[in-house]
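Reviewer comment 2.1 asked that we show a complete input and output for one of the modelled complexes. We chose the zinc ion case, as it is the one discussed in the main text.
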Amino acid sequence: MSCIYIVPIWREEKYNLEFLRSKISEIFRKKAQIYESKKINLDSVYNPTRKQYNSSQILIQLLSNHPRDTFRILGVTDVDLFIPILTFVFGEAQLNGIAGIVSVHRLNNKFYGLPENEELLRKRLIKEAIHELGHTYGLVHCLTPGCVMNSSTYVEDIDEKSDQFCSTCFSAIRG
Ligand SMILES: [Zn+2]
Ligand SMILES: [Zn+2]
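Response of the prediction step:
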């Protein structure tokens, strides 16, 4: 049986991702495992001018080395991600592909000078991870209020949506 692999890519912070693994397994009804990859090189995707990391290049690294039975592969990092046309991204995924990446960097209250809140951070990470995996199922941004596929520009947008797919998006996941 193929598997959703979750790849921790830490620079400074380290989080136990078991809560995320079990949630993803439950939502997507697939086996999910934490997979430590030695092939991710953050230094090579760092942009010193922007002081950020190129998320598309991390996706390429994830795709170039993953277990044979990979169904999806999702990187989880603490570094600040960007794509060239945007000032930052919470995450990125291949539409109809197998790879996604999500960052906790801007999901952490600490980034906004607010008191840390582990529970809130976990909720935000779950939503963004499910959102990016949704893109790998071919889902685009959804306008149905509360759907996890709503696009999020600010962290407040993430807090406003749920971690659930609306019925239309859900049917695409279940095929
Ligand atoms: Zn999106
Ligand atoms: Zn939806």
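Residues 142, 144, 147, 149, 165-166, 168-169 surround zinc ion (ligand 2) (CB under 6 Å). We note this here for comparison with the apo prediction described in Section 3.2.
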